[in-house]
Write a structure and sequence with these properties.
The complex is a heterodimer of chains A (163) and B (576). By secondary structure, chain A is α+β, with helices and mostly antiparallel strands. Chain A has helices spanning 15-25, 54-66, 96-107, 128-137; strands at 2-10, 32-37, 43-51, 70-75, 81-92, 111-115, 119-126, 143-148, 152-155. Chain B contains 23 helices and 20 strands. In chain B, strand 15, helix 17 (398-406) and strand 16 form a beta-alpha-beta unit. Classes of the chains: A alpha+beta (163), B alpha/beta (576). The A-B interface holds A 9-10, 13-14, 17-18, 21, 25, 55, 58-59, 62-63, 65-66, 68-71, 163 and B 122-123, 126-127, 130-131, 134, 151, 183-186, 308-310, 313-314, 317. Bound molecules: flavin-adenine dinucleotide (FAD), thiamine diphosphate and magnesium ion.
């Protein structure tokens, strides 16, 4: 099953490589990994999207907790949570495509953030599946370039991950 | 402890080691650590032991720790010094041995420029350390060293690398060594959950076929006494892993021997057939339970005490997990058991009758009549001659298994070997570490002619420091363990497992200034051992020419289950 794991770790050089190294060394699946400093600059927050059986997920959580720099680990799937990902898509916007792209962008509640002669750049946020759906719905030939951040997640309500 | 006077980074390193009450540093100098070596020249807090290869420095520090329970310390230079240390670090990591390894690094401004003797030590060691640090400011040395020792020795112990660039060992700073260290990201649990502990005791008291299986955690956690108390009070059978030997006295009637791939028939059968299993500081290794599927052909309730949550339910699903320090958890269990004052039930009597019938197979008997020296016999005699009190270090191979099976360890921290990584070449440096730890003790290094050649250069170190180690070479002229597998699984195709062109070990030992002996007749084994151990101040290299084709039994083939052992008498070892 797909799991989203959030973790807080000391914001030190090499911290990211400890996590990514753990995943590759133990053969754990890694769909995406995002990381940035938090409002407290001594801490980084990471969101890891992974998949595995319950036993594998249990081991992943334990192994992450075991890393000396890791302060807290939370499996978001243990409760209610929200997941968001940002995608930037550069699409062809010539002739008939121009209107079509604007319309699709509106339907998916995206925003056009750069307009050039032959192209638009669209910004879209949502769950991974929503972003997939947007890509699916575009004419392949119209897609010039895409970039995605990978998912960020946060617990709902009073599920709070903090030190 | 504050000191307003500024001293160099190198001196700070020395003072940190002093504060940690380090007695020995095993090391080898080089460019990046010259400032540190200069500081060593001017101090007498600890003794520096100059090895002949950095791998041996780490192994010796590792053995010093295994023998004493203290943190072992090694010091190596950058680049090749650092990479030579890797095998030692990985060996300690796999067996959870607390070490601090200090490596030199190129000066901070040169990092990343492919400088002379630069290697990314933090990157290279990351998968085989408990933690590592690159110190980039002289002001950080003391706190980093404090953290390194703290991390190495607490929780599940392990090696910690501190990589120190050369320039900062010349920079000046005040020396302030913190008394304590707090890390919000690292707080290992030591006290077990009392509800779980109660549940465990109840299960054990009600069990019909209880079994206790203990490992390296009992040795590492100095919990031998508490274990003996519990096992005796419950009146149950107990087995040790290779790493746990000595954790429970081997000559005690409740001990059923080592379990696993080369474990005893009775230990493996009891492990498979028990209804309640208490696992203590052991990690259900693949060499121990064989095929997990086969293990679950029979159902049993498993209680598992371990300080590392990731050891629990990793390979084997556990029913009652108890995360905590063995010593503290066992003490709590002992209190609860004492309050119950259990009597031997009829079910337990029947269980012992079953175990005794398994024991009557005498699975460790061997045929000693062909006129050749049997390796098992050498170990039995070694046990007798040393009265079971020696530190026995071992290399890796058949000789290691025979040492584990036939030397009866009654005390923890006496059996020193590489279990998890299985590193050939550890034997001699391990013996050095033990001899430094206990200078007047008898130290025997059981080895093979393959393994001993992997760190043979240390004969020179042994001479320099007058270490009266006794090397027990079980010389079968084969990479015996490899040959055994080739015999069983590759139809006797002995591909590259014959050890040709061996040196004359007697002359070799003599050329290093030691005593050499070669023993070829079974009748001479005991006398030679007595003679060697009587030379209390000399290093003696004993080359026993043993039966070449002897195999280790019992044996569980890879992928097979615990009750599917091959026994010596099943095969008739002579026919092979
Ligand atoms: C050639 C060869 C053959 C082998 N054959 C066998 C064999 O037949 N049988 C066998 O048993 N092994 C055998 N081994 C060794 C095997 O590979 C493993 O190294 C060994 O079985 C692991 O032992 P262990 O389970 O005691 O774990 P260890 O590696 O000793 O781990 C200790 C466990 O205790 C925990 N721990 C540490 N400190 C504490 C504490 N204070 N409190 C609580 N828990 C703590 C740790 O977290 C860890 O889980 C063989 C090795 C070689 C090289
Ligand atoms: C560094 C290293 N290389 C290879 C091996 C694989 N290996 C395991 S046992 C063994 C043979 C050891 O031979 P020897 O030291 O003569 O001992 P014997 O088995 O003959 O007693 C080998 C090659 C290993 N464990 N370690
Ligand atoms: Mg050999």
């Amino acid at each position: 099953m797909r799991h989203i794991i959030s973790l807080l770790m000391e914001n030190e050089s090499g911290a990211l490589s400890r996590v990514s190294g753990l995943f590759s060394a133990r053969g754990y699946n890694i769909e995406s990994l995002t990381v940035a400093a938090t409002e407290d600059p001594t801490l980084s927050r990471m969101t890891i999207v992974t998949a595995g059986s319950d036993e594998v997920i249990e081991q992943i959580i334990k192994q992450l907790n075991k890393l000396i720099d890791v302060v807290k680990v939370l499996d978001l799937n243990d409760g209610k949570f929200i997941e968001r990902e940002l995608m930037l898509v550069k699409v062809k916007a010539t002739g008939a495509f121009r209107e079509e792209m604007k319309r699709m962008c509106d339907i998916f509640r995206g925003r056009i953030i750069d307009v050039a002669d032959g192209s638009f750049t669209i910004e879209l946020t949502g769950s991974g599946t929503k972003l997939d759906a947007f890509i699916e719905s575009l004419d392949k030939a119209a897609i010039l370039e895409t970039v995605r951040t990978g998912a960020s997640g946060i617990g709902r309500g009073d599920r709070i991950l903090k030190v | 402890m504050a000191n307003t006077q500024k001293i160099t980074g190198a001196d700070i390193v020395i003072r940190c080691l002093e504060q940690e009450k380090v007695k020995f540093v095993f090391g080898y100098p080089g460019g990046a650590v010259l400032h540190i070596y200069d500081a060593i020249y001017n101090q007498d807090y600890f003794k520096h032991i100059l090895v002949r290869h950095e791998q041996a420095a780490v192994h010796a520090a590792d053995a010093f720790s295994r023998a004493t329970g203290e943190v072992g310390v090694a010091l190596v230079t950058s680049g090749p010094g650092a990479t030579n240390a890797i095998t030692g670090i990985a060996t300690a990591y796999m067996d959870s041995i607390p070490l601090v390894v200090i490596s030199g690094q190129v000066p901070v401004p040169a990092i990343g420029l492919d400088a002379f003797q630069e290697v990314d030590m933090v990157g290279v060691t990351r998968p085989c350390v408990k933690h590592n640090f690159l110190v980039k400011d002289v002001k950080d040395i003391a706190l980093t060293m404090k953290k390194a020792f703290h991390i190495a020795r607490t929780g599940r112990p392990g090696p910690v690398v501190v990589d120190i660039p050369k320039d900062i060992t010349a920079h000046l700073s005040e020396f302030i060594y913190p008394d304590t260290v707090e890390m919000r990201s690292y707080n290992p649990v030591t006290k077990g959950h009392s509800g779980q502990i109660k549940k465990a005791v109840k299960l054990l008291l009600e069990a019909k076929r209880p079994m206790v299986y203990t490992g390296g955690g009992v040795v590492l956690g100095d919990a031998s006494e508490a274990l003996v108390k519990l096992v005796r009070a419950l009146g149950v059978p107990v087995t040790n892993t290779l790493m746990g030997l000595g954790g429970y006295p081997s000559t005690d009637p409740q001990f059923v021997g080592m379990l696993g791939m080369h474990g005893t028939y009775e230990a493996n059968m009891a492990m498979q057939d028990c209804d309640v299993l208490l696992a203590v500081g052991a990690r259900f290794d693949d060499r121990v339970i064989g095929n997990p599927k086969h293990f679950f052909n029979k159902s049993r309730t498993i209680i598992h005490i371990d300080i590392d949550p990731s050891s629990i339910s990793k390979r084997v699903k556990v029913d009652v997990p108890i995360v905590g320090d063995v010593k503290s958890v066992l003490a709590e269990m002992n209190e609860l058991v004492a309050a119950e004052n259990p009597k031997q039930s009829s079910a337990l009597k029947a269980w012992w009758a079953q175990i005794d019938s398994w024991r009557s197979k005498l699975c460790l008997d061997y045929d000693n009549s062909n006129g050749l020296i049997k390796p098992q016999y050498v170990i039995q005699k070694l046990w007798e001659v040393t009265k079971g009190e020696a530190y026995v270090t071992s290399d890796v191979g058949q000789h290691q298994m025979w040492a584990a099976q036939y030397y009866k360890f009654d005390k923890p921290r006496r059996w020193i070997n590489s279990g998890g990584l299985g590193t050939m070449g550890v034997g001699l440096p391990y013996a050095m570490g033990c001899q430094f730890a206990d200078p007047t003790a008898q130290v025997a290094c059981v080895t093979g002619e393959g393994s001993i050649q992997m760190n043979i250069q240390e004969l020179s170190t042994c001479k320099q420091y007058h270490l009266p180690i006794k090397v027990i070479l079980l010389n079968n002229r084969y990479l015996g363990m490899v040959r055994q597998w080739q015999e069983f699984f590759y139809e006797n195709r002995y591909s590259e497992s014959y050890m040709d062109s061996l040196p004359d070990f007697v002359k070799l030992a003599e050329s290093y200034g030691h005593v050499g002996m070669q023993i070829t007749q079974p009748g001479d084994v005991e006398g030679a051992l007595k003679e060697a151990f009587a030379m209390k101040s000399r290093f003696v290299f004993m080359d026993f020419i043993t039966d070449q084709k002897e195999n280790v039994f019992p044996m569980i083939e890879a992928g097979k289950g615990l009750s599917e052992m091959i026994l010596a008498n099943d095969i008739g070892a002579e026919d092979l």
